[in-house]
Amino acid sequence: MHRRKFLLAVMVVLLFCGCNGGSETVPAAVSVTKTASVAEEITETVTVPETSAVTETELSASSAVTEISEPSYELPEGFYSELEEIINKYPHFDYYDISLAYEDIATGTIFMLNPDKHYFSASVMKAPYMLYIYRMALAGKADTEQKLTYSEKYKREGTGTLQYEEFGTEWTVEELIGLCLEESDNSAFAMLRELYPEDGYKKFMTSLGITHEEDSKASGQPQICCESALIISNGIYDFINENNPYSEKLKYHLTHSRNAMILGGENTEVVRKYGWYGGYFHDMAVILGENDYCLTILTNLDMLEIGTREYRLFGELSELISKYSGELTAGTAAGNRSVITYDRQEVKDMALPKDPYMLLSVVNMKLRDIYPDLEELCSDMDADKNSISEAMAKLGYHYSAEENQFVPTETTDEN
Q1: Is residue 382 one of the residues assigned to a domain?
Q2: Which residue in 178, 191, 169, 177 sits closest to 36, CA to CA?
Q3: What CA–CA distances, in Å, run from 32 to 37, 202, 277, 362, 395?
C-alpha cells in the first residue's frame, strides 16, 4: 500500500442516468439585492440603483439522476503508476488538500481524486457568473453593449487593470466580461455584480444542476468542489457549442485567460479560468480536441509560497490526463465514475522538510496552529533556530514575533 494510503478507497462507481436526456425549465428569477462582493473580498455593502436591476427570466439546464452501479471499470495500469509517481514527486500531497476531476464529455465517464473536499472558490467563480450574464443576454434580459461608468466605489485591489484607470471612464458590459475572464479583474467584477445581482446567479447555478448551496454563492465564502466544477464546465462547453451570438466571445475570453496552469496537449484548445487567493490555487478547464473533456484541479496550498513548482504540479497532472484521456473511457459503460482518495498528514505530525519553500510553509503552519513562538517550535522539534532563520533569509523572509510567522523582508505586489 502507498505510504500515504494512496488507494485507501480504490474504486467507487456511480452510473449517471439521463446524461443525454432532455432539459427542464427552471425559473431563475433575478432581483435587486443590497449586497455585493468579489471572490477575493469576503463581504462588503453597496447600494444598488433601482435602474440597474434586471427583470425576472427563465433559464433551462439539463439535469441528471444518479444511481449506484457495479462492477467498476479498470483504469489503465500505466495511469495508476504515473499518477503515483507524481504524488511521490511532490511533497505537497503529504500536507495539502489536492483534488482533481476529469470527465469525458462524449461518454460522461468521470475520474476524480479526493472529490469530497470543498475549497474557497476564489476567482474560479467568475467563469460561471459571466456565463450567467451571457445567458441573460441570450434571453434578452441583458445588454452586453450597455455602458457603465467606473467610479471609486468599484475600485478593488488585487488582480486586474481597471483599478488603475481614471474614474469616470465608460466600459461596456462586454468589455467588463473580458476583463473578468482574461485578467480576473476584481473591479470589473464589482461593477457587473451590481448590475446583475447575486440572487439571479444563485438560481442560475441551481438550474445548471449545482446541489451544494455553498457552491452557488458569489459572496460570503463561496465554495467549489470537483462535482460542481464538472457541472459548471459542462455548462460552459454546451454554451460554446450552441454557436449562439455569444458563444465565440465566451470561448475567446476563456482561451485567453492568463496564468495557464492546466495544459491540454497538442492540437487542443484550453478553455479555462484560474483562481488564486490566500493559498487556494485552482484551475478549471474544458479541453477541446480530438477527445473533448473537462478537467479541474483544486488545491489548498495554505501558506505555501506559490511559484514555479506549483505551476508544474498542475502541468504534470494535466499532462497525465491528456496522455490517457482516450484510454480512460475505452470499453466502459457511459457514465461510470471512478474515485481515488488518500490521507494527508496532519500538521502536528509533519517533520521539517529540507526543501526551503516547503520548510517555510510547514514552519508557518506549525506556528499558526500549534506553537506560540519560534523558540518553542525549535525546542519541541529539536530544530536549530539559526539554521531555520538563515534558510528563510535566503528566500527573503524573516521571523516576526508579533505575527508569529515568517514574513517577507521586503513587501512585494500581490499577483
Answers
A1: yes
A2: 191
A3: 14, 13, 28, 45, 48
| Confidence band of 229 (pLDDT split at 50, 70, 90) | very high
Digit-coded pLDDT (tens) for 193-205: 999 999 999 999 9
What range does the domain containing 390 cover? 353-408
| Distance between CA atoms of residues 248 and 243, nearest Å | 7
Chain centre to alpha carbon of residue 71: 31
Let me know the angle formed at the C-alpha of 8 by 6 and 10, rounded to the nearest 5 degrees: 95
Q: Considering the domain boundaries, does residue 180 fall inside one?
A: no
User: The pTM is what?
Assistant: 0.74
CA–CA gap between residue 277 and residue 98 (Å, rounded) = 15
How many structural domains compose the chain?
Answer: 1
The answer to whether residue 147 sits within a structural domain is no
Indicate whether 367 pLDDT > 70.
Answer: yes
Which has more pLDDT, 87 or 180?
Answer: 180
pLDDT in tens, 288-341: 999 999 999 999 886 666 778 889 999 999 999 999 988 876 555 545 788 888
